[in-house]
Amino acid sequence: MPEDELSRSSHSNPGKSLINGIKTNPASNSPKSSFSVPVGPPVYVDLAYIPNHCSGKNTDPEFFKRVRASYYVVSGNDAANGEPSRAVLDALLEGKSQWGDNLQVTLIPTHDTEVTREWYQQTHEKQQELNIMVLASSSTVVMQDESFPACKIEF
Asked: What are the BP-aspect GO terms (predicted)?
């Protein structure tokens, strides 16, 4: 948006401001949780990396209501630190249930963990209802002295 248009839009809407390019009303922008999410339309992306190794510190259902991705990458292989977090995986189900349309979503875990396996088994019916597919990797990448699972994603 050119600077003169941005300036006009700010002056023509007294009491409203722009946060990350989204018009908000400061009086009604109080967070419902500890996360501050500006009021505005959802954002559609092809691929989203769930923040902080899928820890519950930065992600809640509001994240999944607003950030609508075709693919979500779930990292985390540290059960001692709650990564990946079962609460975040459940938040995906809750957030996706609010979308209003049944777009296909693919969840890509970077590690096979007990948390993701249990979540997958316990919520499989809900995943199918919400059109969520969880990728399991059968491919392995070998580099020098290290090997790890891999997923191929095509857009």
From this structure: axonogenesis; dendrite development; microtubule cytoskeleton organization; regulation of microtubule depolymerization
